[in-house]
Design a protein that fits this description.
Elements lengths: L1 H15 L7 H7 L5 H36 L4 H10 L7 H11 L5 H13 L13 H34 L5 H14 L3 H15 L12 H29 L3 H8 L4 H13 L1 H5 L1 H18 L5 H10 L3 H29 L7
Helix pairs in contact: 1-12, 3-6, 3-16, 4-5, 7-8, 7-10, 7-12, 7-14, 7-16, 8-10, 9-10, 9-14, 10-12, 10-14, 11-12, 14-15, 14-16, 15-16
Length: 353
């Protein structure tokens, strides 16, 4: 109990602590150089470069989805008519002509491309072939359960990483080996396998959780663990390597000389220096979790973008599939910008624009 209280107190102090050591700003002020002329332009250029990168990523994703729609096997007008009537048959040119004219399928590829990019710039992702609704509306209706799932999985994965790394990283002997083994094994587990095992053991076998996820908290636990366990292993491996390097630095000896406990030194000082690489990949991880949500929502019959994507792919609903791809790209971009902002909360000495 005392160990647990010390650990909780140390983590709390880590969050409250604004940093240690002199900041670059104060150091430059003492030397008579405010750094304004050099740091400010660098910061502006840094954000301009990130904005340009974000636009390029979104542009590439949009271009790929356009190519998918335009050059996918099968005639789009025929597909639209068959989906609308619930049949699968060949269509005559007379039947296809009005559909081609209404959707501009007869226009040149270049004209269709410009129209598609212009629509995306206005927030128009097209109309779902299967549902006959705007793709933007379909995504908006289904996005909440998926975002709850993915963000919860990211938070749980980080909780696993912080606890396991703080307690086992940098230790010689059995505890360090156990921590490293847990991370290695969990990082290599396929999400579909993890979900299937959790479903069979804890939902079907033990009956502790519902087989179908539903919308309640009990139904969220197994899907979250399905995504969080492999991700925690990956983030943990990245954090452990940095932690073991940081724990041998002189500032650790200084912290110990002030009478801090081992857990406090690890949580307040070493952990801060070791989690930045893992934070860096958290933006990518959120995009990966959105992709993994397809697996979790399918295994646990949970509503969300994943189930919608599977249904759209089965029906060859290319506009809806393409819209979801663009949505994931936008989330990836936003997540990486948020990660950049989090750097200063972890270590205020990092330069921000």
């Amino acid at each position: 109990m005392i160990f647990a209280e010390n650990f909780a107190e140390a983590i709390g102090e880590t969050i409250a602590d604004s940093g240690h050591g002199p900041s670059p700003t104060s150091a430059s002020t003492e030397s008579g150089d405010t750094g304004y002329s050099s740091h400010r332009p660098r910061g502006v250029l840094r954000w301009l470069a990130k904005a340009a990168s974000a636009i390029i990523v979104l542009f590439v994703a949009a271009s790929i989805t356009f190519l998918l729609q335009t050059f996918a096997p099968g005639d789009r007008a025929t597909l639209l008519l068959n989906l609308a009537e619930g049949t699968a048959k060949e269509r005559t040119p007379e039947e296809l002509a009005p559909v081609n004219a209404a959707h501009g399928f007869d226009d040149s590829v270049w004209k269709q491309y410009l129209r598609y990019i212009g629509g995306i710039a206005r927030g128009d992702l097209g109309t779902s072939y299967q549902l006959q609704e705007p793709v933007t509306s379909v995504i908006t209706e289904q996005v909440a359960p998926t975002l709850i799932l993915t963000v919860s999985a990211l938070v749980v994965a980080w909780l696993f990483v912080l606890v396991l790394t703080t307690l086992t990283a940098g230790r010689r002997g059995v505890w360090g080996a156990i921590g490293s083994l847990i991370e290695t094994v969990s990082a290599g587990l396929p999400q579909y396998w993890v979900g299937s095992i959790l479903l069979v053991v804890f939902a079907i076998g033990a009956g502790w959780f519902p087989v179908e996820s539903g919308s309640g908290l009990p139904g969220l636990i197994l899907p979250v663990l399905t995504l969080a366990i492999p991700l925690a292993g990956f983030l943990g491996q990245t954090t452990r390597a940095e932690f073991e390097r940081a724990i041998d630095q002189p500032f650790v000896l200084t912290a110990r000389s002030r009478g801090l406990s081992d857990v406090a030194v690890r949580a307040r000082h070493v952990l801060r220096h070791s989690i930045l690489p893992a934070v860096t990949v958290s933006g990518w991880a959120l995009g990966a979790l959105l992709s993994g949500a397809v697996i979790a929502e399918t295994v646990f019959a949970r509503a969300g973008i994943g189930q919608t994507l599977v249904s759209a792919a089965s029906a060859r609903d290319v506009p809806l599939v393409s819209g979801i791809v663009i949505f994931v790209a936008v989330v990836y971009i936003v997540a990486n910008l948020v990660v950049d902002a989090l750097y200063t909360l972890i270590d205020p000495r990092i330069e921000v624009p």
